[in-house]
Amino acid sequence: MKNLAKILILTVLITICLGYFIEPRHATAQQSEAKTAEQVYRNIQVLKGIPADQLLGTMSFIAGSLGVTCNYCHVNPFDKDEKPTKLRAREMILMMKKINQDNFKDNLSVNCATCHRGSTIPATTAPVAHVDFNKILAPASAAPAPLPTADEVFDKYIQALGGKDKIDKMTTLILKGSNTQINGPNPPQTTRGEIYRKAPNKLMMVMITPGGTFMQAYNGTIAWRGSNDRTQEIRGQDLLGAKRDAGFFRNIPLKDQYSTLKVVGRDQIGDKEVYVVEGVFNDTAPEKSLFGIQQEKLFFDTKTGLLIRRYLEYSTPLGKLPEMTDFEDYRSVEGVMLPFTIRSSRPPFSNIQKFTEITLNTPVEDTKFDMPKKSP
Ligand code: HEC
Ligand code: HEC
User: Fold this and answer.
1) Comparing C-alpha atoms, which of 252, 255, 251 is closest to residue 280?
2) Nearest atom (ligand 1) to Cα of 70
3) For the segment 91-124, what is each residue's pLDDT rounded down to a tens digit?
C-alpha cells in the first residue's frame, strides 16, 4: 500500500511536471483573470507577478539550465526553504534581473542558461578550440544540389508513410511497449504501457507498474487520470497538454498546421542527412492556439523522406525551454510506416517510448476514452 502511494505520488508528480504549459503572450478575456504565482503558491519571494500558470515552466527552465532536476533545490513540500541551493537560486534570479536591467534594456539577454549551460558550476576556462581538420583539408566539393521546396518535402513524406489513401483510412492505433522516464540524474523509471488512439482526437494511455495500473485519457471533451480505484478530471493547463497530445494526425499529414513552410537547409542528425524545414503555425494549430508558440523546425531524412525530428521552444518568464521529439525505427504496419521508438525531451525530463506491437484500424469503442462513472 505504501509502495502504491509512493508510485502514485511519483507518477502524479511526473505528469504534473510534464503537463505544465505556458500561456500565450496575448491573454484572452478568460486568461486575463489568471492569477499570479504568489496568489497560488505559498512561498514566492522573487518571482512575484509572473502568471501562476508559468511557474512550473519557469522551474523547468531553471532545472534544465543547470542540468538538474527538481530535488536539487526542493524537498517536499515545495514551498519549504530547506536546501541552500534554493536560496542561492533566489539570489541568482535577482542577480539576473539586475544584470539585464543595468546592461541589456531589461531584455532576457542573460539568463540561467547563458552562464550555466547545463551545469551547476559555470565554466571559467575558455573552451578548447575545436577544429575539424578532416573538414578543412577535404577537397572543396562540388556545389550542393539545390534544396527541394517544402511542398516537395511534404509530398515525399506522405509517399514515404504509405500514401494519402492509406493515411486517410487510418482510424485507430493501438501501441504496446515500454515507457522509460528520465528525470535529471535520477535512475530511469521503466514501465509497461499501452496507448489507444482514435481519430480525430481521442487518446488513452495506460501504465502498468508493479504497484498498479495508471491511466490518462482524453475523450474529445474531458481529460482525466486514474489509478486502480481513483479517477480525477484534468482541468486547466494540463487539459491543454492532453488535448494537444490527443491529435491523431499531429505527426502525420502535418502540413495543414502551418501558414508558411520553408526548407532552410541541410543538416546531419546522427548518420542521417536531413532537410530542415521551418514552419510557422497557423492560428488553429494546437501549439499556437494552446501554448502561443509561433513556429517549429521539422527535420526530414533526405533519403527516406520520413520525419525524424520536431523541435520547438516554449517561452517562460526567465528564458526559452526547448522541446524535441525524435521518431526512430520506422516499420511498416499494414502499409503505413510508423515509428516504433519515440524519444521526447523537455528539460529536465526525457521520455523514451519503445513499442513492440502496433496495430492499425482495430475497432476501439468511443466509451474506452470516457471517464469511468464513480463506483457506488
Ligand atoms: C535551482 C533551484 C531550483 C530548481 C532546480 C527547481 N526549483 Fe522550484 N523553486 C526554486 C525557487 C528559488 C523557488 C521560489 C521562487 C521565489 O521565491 O519567487 C521555487 C519555487 C517553486 C514552487 C512554488 C512552491 C510554493 O508553494 O511556494 C514550485 C511548485 C516549484 N518551485 C516547483 C519546481 C519543480 C516542479 C521543479 C522541477 C521541474 C523545480 N521547482 C526546480 C528553485 C528551484
Ligand atoms: C552571470 C552568470 C550567471 C547567471 C546568469 C546565473 N548564474 Fe548561477 N552561478 C553562477 C556562478 C559563477 C556560480 C558559482 C559557481 C561556483 O560555486 O563556483 C553560480 C552558482 C549557482 C548555484 C549554486 C550551485 C552550487 O551547487 O553551488 C545555483 C543553484 C545557481 N547558480 C542557480 C542559478 C539560476 C537558477 C540562475 C537563473 C535565474 C542562475 N544561476 C543564473 C553564475 C551565474
Assistant:
1) 255
2) 37
3) 999 999 999 999 999 999 999 999 999 999 999 9
